[in-house]
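Continuing the batch. This is chain 6 of the set; chains 1 through 5 are on the previous pages. Same settings as before, nothing changed between runs. Recording input and output for traceability.
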Amino acid sequence: MPKISFVTSTFNEEKNLPSCLDSVKELADEITLVDGSSRDKTVEIAKEYGAKVKVTDNPPIFLINRQKAIDMATGDWLLNLDADERATTELIKEIKEVVKNDDKKFNGYFIPRKNWFLGRFLMKGGQYPDYQLRLYRRGKVHFELKDVHEQAIVEGEKGYLKSSMLHYPYKDFPAYLLKWRRYNDVFATQIKENFSKKSLFAKLFGGLDYLLIKPAWWFFWTQIRHKGIYDLWSGAVFSFFSALRFPVSYLKSFSK
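Output for chain 6:
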């Protein structure tokens, strides 16, 4: 059986980490974790599970620390989940079968993800299957480290798993707003950098795009085209704030 490493990065995740590590304990031969100098008991909890831990700073693009955790791993295959994600029993079973019967065709696998928001998993609105590239052959994966939302880059072909992982990103709505604002800060910086290279006309059109066109299109696309309306109240709120990030981040870019 090929060796499997579980890799992750953390910052103040003492409440989420135990459930995450419990969900992969039957699969992982080792755990490598890079922590961004947590002020809670995250590091202590990780060590209780036998993890190899490296403590460093907490960069805005947290994928920098995820890459460090990947570089520390020694397994044949690497599984990456965030602390607020869980591997289901079905997913663990499927991963074991995939790596055991490895035919060398794929160097990475996308995993479908169910996202929990305001009391339910969002199954419409473009939120499912929400494929995430999280299972990698060691030595075949890296990140560009330019964006908090970027997928891993895996050399060669990628496959798709059928079983889902579960994502619990927000304990409540205020927690969602806090993370939403943080992502908007990063997005605003990217907008400013992008606009700095454009002509005056392009900046004017770009402003109109971010203030009106993008948010209207996004809300319509997720609620109607991707049937987010079937996720009821939760889906409507999620679509609204996803659309609102465009004008909010654009306006924030002026203060960067």
